[in-house]
Amino acid sequence: MTDVFFYIFSTVALAAGIGVVLSRNTVNGAMFLIGTFLSMAAIFVLLEAYFLAVIQVLVYAGAVMVLFLFIIMLLDVRESAAKKTSVYTWVASVIGLAILIVGTASIVSADSIKTKAAALPEPSGASLKPFGYELFTTYLLPMQVTGFLLLIAMIGVIALSKKLNTDGSAK
Amino acid sequence: MSIVIKRKPLTLMEKLYLPEIARGLSTTFRKLWEKPVTLEYPEQRPTIPEGYRGVPTLVKDPEGREKCVSCQLCEFVCPPKAIRITPGSIPEDSDYAHVEKAPQEFDIDMLRCIYCGMCQEVCPEEAIWLQNQFSMSGYTRGEMVNNKEKLYELGGTLPDEHFKWRKKKESAEKGGGHH
Amino acid sequence: MEFNPIIVKFVYAAIVVVVIMTLCAYAVLAERKISSWIQGRVGPNRTALPIIGGIPLLGPFLTRLGIFQPLPDGLKFLFKEDVVPGHVNKVYFIMAPILSLVPALTTVAVVPFGQFVTKTGEVIPLVLANVNVGLLFLFAVSSLGVYGVVLAGWSSNSKYPFLGGIRASAQMISYELAMGVSVLPVLLWVNAPGKEGTMNLFDIAQAQNGFWFAMWMPLSAIIFLVCLFAETNRLPFDMAESETELVSGFHTEYSSFKFGLFFVGEYAHMIIGSCVFTLLFLGGWNPLPFVTLETLGMDKGILGAALSVGIFLGKMCAMMFLFMWVRWTLPRFRYDQVMRLGWSILLPLSIANLIAYALIIFYLDTAL
Ligand code: SF4
Ligand code: SF4
Hints:
The structure holds three protein chains of three kinds.
Chain A: H1 2-22, H2 26-46, H3 50-75, H4 87-109, H5 128-136, H6 140-162
Helix pairs in contact in A: 1-2, 2-3
Chain B: H1 12-16, H2 18-32, E1 56-58, H3 73-77, E2 83-89, E3 101-109, H4 118-122, E4 128-130, E5 145-146, H5 148-155, H6 164-173
Chain C: H1 5-38, H2 58-65, H3 70-79, H4 90-107, E1 115-117, E2 123-125, H5 134-143, H6 146-155, H7 159-190, H8 201-206, H9 213-216, H10 218-231, H11 256-281, H12 293-296, H13 301-327, H14 335-367
Antiparallel strand pairs in C: 1-2
The complex binds iron/sulfur cluster (2 copies).
């Protein structure tokens, strides 16, 4: 039963992911992305990581994508009529493809990523306490780093939207 | 010269907003229990004030004579051209043959009428009156045109004991001039 | 007799959905009646069913109350012509009403509506799915409801729905934050050290056998309530609809059944919102602060279960009344006022509130 669900949801996730890349209409793309997030949440549920699943829906599908849609609508992005692909696009796609190949190869070939069962943390399921303790002890550094990255992004956005002069004063 | 009217600065309580909401809520809560002020229309009817200008109608005098002499003044004055009159003559053997004319057809299109009351104002015979009737409805355009019968049915009788035409006839028979 | 548990669940789910739909229908009636009473009108008072309406005294009384009105209301939605304008994006146009109703009905699954105490004193929650992350699940799924509004606005391909959709999305993002932060003190208290960690709505309701959370966390309750109004798009926050400026906002182009879905969706959201507020802040099915059904000695068996459900529904109806009462009292905010209230008043206030309660709870935990 679980296997069947896993295959269903992973297929949906992959199909929707491909849809994101291929769709020319930005709103379609956003909707596909939501589909991906939702099916990933379903896979989390199958892994008994209920908390993660719910957070996935709450944060990504519920908030981030609403923001995406908001921006798409506000900017009124039209269907991009077959633009000439720039050099950056080529470089980015080559790098992306390379990463994809490396990743797939490493999963398929090597045993190295198979962690010993004992080393895996207990599936915390829905209980939040172990989750919280882990987050603020073992994984404190990654969390802080992520937060710092987000802070940088935020300051960047503020700087961009304020349109500062070269000397730093606001226009 | 522009006048700037200063708004009264809000007090702290008003700025907090919630107390003001509570005040508003209490007002509406009191309203909740008050008797409705509306009429339940088909059963309860409003009292029509005096001088109300409802649907224009034709009236007869107390003897049952139709007062309209189809002079067509109302047809001319009617701003939206709602009135359509076909004049006819009064038969020789009638008591009122000397009036000479009466409407053969008299249609008022209520989809056009704007209830201005000009027809009532202009009528030399006081034959057309805007009365209390206020609700006109129908399923077709045709139904919304009031013909002569309908107009007399709506209008009824004007209790005016003046009888101008009878007096005219009498004075003419006595050989006198007008009146 | 043995039943397949999945089938039993389906039957329960169907029952709950039917109940919610009926509640929605009568919520619409209540809205119409309350609005008319507040405005000094009579409201719907004509529709009568042939047989029940014919009973002397009772029949006319029910007819005057408009009890039979929801039926023709619903039929009207079903049988009117369903217009799909030529300029819309058909797929999303049809998807949008479904998207706005489905999340509301999904969240019902985790909302407990009563308790059943067996003879041995075992407490069984009356809920479709008693999941541990109940509250988060509820927030997560109900936040998906905004897609219905946004997509409706976008796919209608005309300016008023579009503006409505944009406003709805902006408002949603702004108030979800404050809403989430404002319930954190409640969760802090329920999950305080030494207690079993939980986000289960049933446990949260059960934890209010003494003070109700609305009493000792009034600020949280108020912020949550305001955000609830915003999230359900109710006046004074009905930016998405605002019929005086945007015709009728996101559902301007909708007619008949699709419009009916939006309509029911709004009321379903309100009902769920009222349930959640009752569970989080108004003590769930505890009749009075410090008085539980257990202290009254009326918690056992079917009677106790019925009583708990009744109390819960009563509180929920009171909340629904509040929703409507506020709607017919307050004028709508301007859009910029909505944004300012959300970002520069409610959010800082809720964060300050969180910090204050974190300190208080820490003090209570360490000192006592
Ligand atoms: S009331 Fe005015 S519009 Fe109506 S018939 Fe008389 S003159 Fe015409
Ligand atoms: S109603 Fe009066 S104004 Fe009109 S045609 Fe008759 S007499 Fe003349």
